[in-house]
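Sample intake sheet
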Amino acid sequence: MATQAAEKPQFRTEPRAYDALMKHLAEHPEIKWDHPEPYDVSRSDIYVEDRWQPIFAEMRVKGPLHYVSQSPFGAYWNVVSHKAVAHVEALPELFSSSWEYGGITIIPRPTDEQLAEQGRERFELPMFIAMDRPKHTGQRRTVAPKFTPSAMTAMEDEIRQRTGELLDSLPRGEVFDWVGKVSIELTTGMLAILFGFPWKDRGLLTFWSDWAGDTELALVPGLDEERRGILHEMAAYFQMLWMERANSPGGDDLISMMLQSEAMNQMDPMEFMGNLVLLIVGGNDTTRNTMSGIIHALDKFPDQRKIFEEDPGVIPNAVQECIRYQTPLAHMRRTATEDCELFGEQIRKGDRLVLWYLSANRDEEVFENADKLEVRRENARRHLSFGYGIHRCVGARLAEMQLRVLLEEMHARRMRVHVAGDVERVRANFVHGFRKLEVEITSF
């Protein structure tokens, strides 16, 4: 990454990605994203309406892989069983994550001819989760020390203090949005600490995360261009922070760690931007949506909430079960690097395989009563929400600790949270979570 001086960037905070997409669709009723194939689960309506479960269950009964020949994102394979998802992830050379093939989301990589027809330039964001070995290894090792057990121990007191103070500030006797007041605030604050990001501007991290993580924006050229502009603004802001850390070396925040790493200190601007997107979306959307999912699930299954309230010893396992049940990232994608046979299906070089984590985590052959939250589930840790193999989430321990501390501090305050108003889910096939969750607090 070059270290020339960066001018103070101009950046936007409105509109949010989802709002921009909905406004565009309302203004252009001629746009229709038809889904003629019953197993085309790229469609976001099944997630915002929370009716995806029976579609995946039907696929799992019929087999671990299903080919979709037509969708707004082109042809792809659904990989839906726990065994098949783990198997594909365990073969990173055969099933690549590389951005050079299109990366980790369902979005196809456009050809040069398609770009020319659309009058667009190629826009690709290399990031270490979308890289193959050996480059993936060096970049992952750069940030991994921030997420070791000893690093978690060092951060826990601060996380517990921030969580407790926030819970103590919540209103009693009135309905409020848990997503905005708790989930976003806690995870955005954690990201700001990890990056050494200016506290007064921390809301930008949530804004950038929303724009970076919405795959459906790629289907609307105008919004895709707006997304690119917003991500360039993000990179310009972080370029300023990069310069500050370059002039004051020795810090232990993520930007300083990149600067001190031979594997990352010479990143080109697009690779820098890509790794920022990875760390922001990975550290924000995932934990944020599980923090909301925990509240929604405990309210939906009061027998499990009763167990939690009577026995705080279940909290560590309950965290794993909530991560399984919520599955905050619905999928990851891989690309076949050669022809092969996979569970009886013929896979061709260049085929896209979409690994549906939320289906694997509901696989009845692994998880009994998989559609039910069970805080004492003995094999809850077998969930695949963090991925599997060399690309398993580097920040998994931090996510687990944030969620554990949240439940522990809620229990210490005998805090019971009821769903008491609107529940609005994210309309997306990648990030799986909540935009709004209106609740009211009582005591137990």
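Comment: Residues 17-443 form a domain with the Cytochrome p450 fold (CATH 1.10.630.10). The beta strands are 65-68, 76-79, 95-96, 176-177, 331-336, 340-342, 345-347, 352-356, 415-425, 434-443.
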